Amino acid sequence: MQSIHATELREKLENGESLHVIDVREEDEYEAGHIPNVPLYPLSEFPDVTEKLAKDNVYHVVCRSGGRSQRACDYLESQGFQVVNVEGGMLAWDGDVEA
């Protein structure tokens, strides 16, 4: 499984790369601050959320610190999705945040 540091993800987004990023934290964490335009798919609602994802996309998965996103990536990968874990999560995110 691939991984990318939160800083590298920010750089790619700022450079205009078209990436599919999903946030797997819980709703209260997401509402407190998230990466702009990144949808919420709480890990607690897996596997139901996988119906909303397309297998031909590569998903960059973010959480608070990288642990839940790793679990989400493990699950998604086992279901045939292409995933990239965002190391450091929102704790390491140094870009814009939307609340």
* Percentage of residues in DSSP E strands: 15-25%
* Helical segment count: 4
Number of strands: 4
Q: What structural category characterises the helix and strand content? A: alpha/beta
Q: In what order do the strands lie side by side in the largest sheet?
A: 1-4-3-2
Largest sheet: 4 strands, parallel
CATH topology: Oxidized Rhodanese, domain 1
CATH architecture: 3-Layer(aba) Sandwich
Secondary structure: helix percent: 25-40%
Please state the CA-atom Rg, rounded to the nearest Å.
12 Å
Number of individual domains: 1
Uncertain residue segments: none
What is the top-level CATH class?
Alpha Beta
CA distance, first residue to last residue: 30 Å
Mean pLDDT: 96
Structure commentary:
The mean pLDDT is 96. The chain has helices spanning 6-14, 27-32, 67-78, 89-92; strands spanning 2-5, 20-23, 58-62, 82-87. It contains four helices and four strands. It is an alpha/beta fold. Helices cover 31% and strands 19% of the residues. The longest helix has 12 residues, at 67-78. Strands 1-4-3-2 form a four-stranded parallel sheet. Helix 2 links the parallel strand 2 and strand 3. The relative contact order is 0.29. It is globular. The chain has one domain (2-92): Rhodanese-like domain (Oxidized Rhodanese, domain 1), CATH 3.40.250.10.
